[in-house]
Each structure stands twice: as C-alpha cells, then as structure tokens.
Amino acid sequence: MALEFGVSSRKFSFLDPFNGFQRKDLAIEVRRDPLSGDVARILEFRARDLGPIDHSLFLEREAGRPCPFCPEYLEKVTARFLPEQVPQGRLSRNEAVLFPNAFPYETMNSVMVLTREHYLQPKEFTEEIIDNGFMLAREAFAKLAQGMRFASVNWNYMMPAGGGIIHPHFQLAAGKTPTTYQAAVRRQALAFKRKHPQEDLAAAYLDHERKEKSRWLGRLGPAGWTATFAPRAIYDIMALVPGGKGLLDLKPAQVAKMAQGVAAVMRFFQDKGVSAFNMAMHTPLGPERAMPLMLRLVSRIEIPPLGVDEINYFEKLHDEMLTFIRPESLAAELRPYWP
Ligand SMILES: [Zn+2]
Q1: Which pTM was predicted?
Q2: How does strand 321-323 pair with strand 169-175?
Q3: Are 139 and 131 contacting, i.e. CB atoms less than 8 angstroms apart?
Q4: Distance from the CA of 167 to the center of ligand 1, in angstroms?
Q5: Structural domain containing residue 61
Q6: Which end of the chain is more exposed for a tag (fewer CB within 10 A), N or C?
C-alpha cells in the first residue's frame, strides 16, 4: 500500500529589490509527513556557510565553576538510586555513568554521563561512545522502567540546544503514557494498521523512501536512515526500525549499528559547523509496539551573521517548521559520510 507523502505548494510573487524590482515568482512547498503528521514548509534560499564550530563563549562562561559530571565530583554531587532500585547507587558501563535526574519530569528519569572527558566536539563522539551509551540505556530501561511503555533516550548538545552542562550526557525518560509526539506517531501507525492489518507503517515508510531514493541514506543493521521528508529542523535525520522492535529487542551488534549511524551524522555536523543539536531515540517498552523505534537528530543552528535561532514563532506557536534546506539536498550532502 502506497503511503501519501503529502506535498502542496503556495505561489508568491513580488517585485525584487535585489534585482532591479523585476517580478519574482516563488513557490513555497508544504509537506505533511505520513509517519508523524508533521507539517513543514520548505523555502528556497541560499544557505550561508555556518563556519567552524566555536564553543569558546560557553567554555569561558563556565570557567572556574566545578563540573558536577567530571570524575572528581560525580561521586559526591550526583543523585543516587534508592538501595532497593540499584544497591550500588548508580549504574555504569565503561566510562558512562547513570543516575537519577535530580530535576525529574517523568516517572523513570535518569541522566547518563557519557565520558570522563569534559568537552567533546561533535566528531569526537565515536561509535564506541554512542554505542556504550545506548547499551547502558538498554540496561537502565530493563532494570528501572518496569511497567513503563514509552521510553526515550535524549540529548541536548550544548547551550543553544537546551544543554545545561557542557559535559556530554544523555537523558532517559520512560512513562506509562506517550509524549505528544510519541502519541502522534502511534496514532498514525494504528490508523495504518486498521486499514492494512498485514502491514507495518514503519516498514511501508522505509520501503517508500528506499525506492524514492532522494532522501534515502541507507540501511544500517535494523534501521533505515533518511533525511526526514517534513523536517523539524534545518538538518533533520531519522532512523526508523520496522517490525515492532524496541531498543530492548535489539542484539548488541544491532545497537552498535544504530551508533554507527549517529557517529556518521556527528562527522557531518562537525564539517557543516552544526555546533548544537538535539537527539531523541523513541522506543516502545511494553508488549504493545505500535510506536516504532525511531531516532531523530535535529540541528539547532544559529544562522549567521547575527546568530538567529533556527526556531521561531512558527515552530513554537504554530507547530510547523520552516526550513530552507531541502531534505533531498541534505541527503546528497550527507551520503559521502555514510558508513
Ligand atoms: Zn565535566
């Protein structure tokens, strides 16, 4: 069954001050994503080069303040689990350490410090670091999220993306009810299943994208990767796992493949000057697997020369995204980085 990747366009004409007030005709493309119902508007502008990554402002601001996630402080100042939950207080795996979020927003809510290193640039997040984090997240959900159904592994990289601490860390959340976005994806999947009981929305989506080619990046282990059709950011990359699998169902080698994709995007972000980004890996935990395992990485660019935030009233208050890089162009630029 073919999915509808909805595209409509709006026409716009004006006398162009940059071209002797000649008539200019533009088309604005409006896209609706069949996986999430997300709506995005694609404008055609020439994007400026972002320049090299520079975090000196944030590193200067925190100079002299002790970092709670650095090895010498972590033991003393981060929260510990109740003895009946985790007798040793915290979970760890290689360099990664996981503990309760002292500022919780969900029933199961943990912080995971990824490395002993205090500051890493995007390209320094190797496959091994990301894989180790995902494997510890798996262990944490298995141990600490019993009875929960909807989980996520989240990442705010640097302050413009909402990161409160420079030291690399993920945030894990799991609850009995989905977040609004998880509920939207689940609703789309259930509606698809009602019409096509033998099929799976994630599989149909990936099948479409693989055949369509223009946004397709490739398959890595269990996941298909694409530049998202209706993006939530200027750079929006998605991995989707079909077949009702959750993070806890993946074999370690499959988890490593997910990490391989993330590390490839990190190398791309580094070269493109994407100095802040968000990640969410959504995973079902309970027996109901309507919401697919999905990973999303989105840029949080400050557009030069004034450092304008890529998020504005349109995303914040209208729930739609404006972007000026076509996902098809993003895919073409990202392909050389693909493993
Ligand atoms: Zn630190």
Answers
A1: 0.96
A2: unpaired
A3: no
A4: 4
A5: 53-307+326-339
A6: N
